[in-house]
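Instructor's aside before we start: the two examples that follow are unrelated to each other. I chose them only because their records fit on one page, so don't look for a connection. First example below.
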Amino acid sequence: MNNSKIIFDNLTEEEDIDRISFLQKQQGELSQIIEAINRVEINEDWQKLKRLVLDGVVITLERQLSNEASRKEVNAPELYRLQGQLVWAKKYADLKKLGEFFKQSLENIKLQLKHE
């Protein structure tokens, strides 16, 4: 059962207007984020920083995660920490993927506004 549907069905008109204005605000912010990511991605300084710092991070984290997982006595907190860092690095080190994530969020908001 989708409880969010029940909650939205019971919204008053004022709450519905607040929700629409919130979604419109989110839409504007996401648009600005996507534009900024696109500008940063083509910047020569970002390309240099990515090449010198970020390109090796994912590979290093994957290697550390593999080493930790193959030990006889696995340190679970360390394993979880490395997994979290790897997820973060994969998401934020590649601006194209990050931009796609925000574009998908923007599309979801547009769909919600269309159905209001």
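Example two begins here.
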Amino acid sequence: MDLLPLFAPLYSGPFLWVALGGLFLGAAASRATRRTRTARDPERARTRKWVLVCLWLSVAVILGLAAVFVPGPSRILNPSYAWIAGTVAALAFIAFRFRKAAGIPVLVLLLALAAVLGLFLQSVRAFTGETEIATVRVLSVQPGSMRLQLVPRGDEPVLLTMKGTSFAPIVRVVIFSDFLVFLGVRTWYRFEGMTSFDDSLRQQDTDFRFARPPGLSERVWKLFETYERWIPGVKTAQTELVAKRAQELSTFGIMVENDGGVQIVARQGGG
């Protein structure tokens, strides 16, 4: 883990890329509709005009691709982003095309609109977002034991045989203040392994521990755990244990939510 989550609002969502793409698209349209006949050198002015149009369009296309591939293709499917791009492009066109009459008022309106929409989308995403850290597939369930396939995010699958009837991920989380969550900081985690429980919720003795747990290093976790009250913006550093009853041939996702909670969610076709 590093400080990249602090800058998440700048790159992790489509809004910034879409808005900037609309801005350059509007600038290109404005330049394309300008007349060059009255220029001192019409031929040179015409050449410069279309060079700038191609340049602004190229930047708009690059930003559009960034809006798709930086946050992930699934997130750009929201129709609201098309409206955002169109609105920004229209306002940018008016601001650049009629700079003397409407440039400053439209620019102020554009900045205000971008700020309002950005804050709204960010607030929704900040408090409803989640990160999948692993998936668990229940291969078989026997009286008093279960066979699991654990697939940590970005790592190789692990086969586990555990006592009991319910499994639980061992996840240590660092929960940040609401203000930092609003700015885009996600809960930091250290996924240490898996444990299990019987029907009476008694913890069993077949825990699995990663040799190198995904997420925070042990040194960083201990730093947060020891000095959390002195670190600005940190609410708490704690261990979350959430158990799920094993159901044969079911698949579950282990999720860390932005508010610090850990959930085990059944996947489609699972139990």
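The mean pLDDT is 79.
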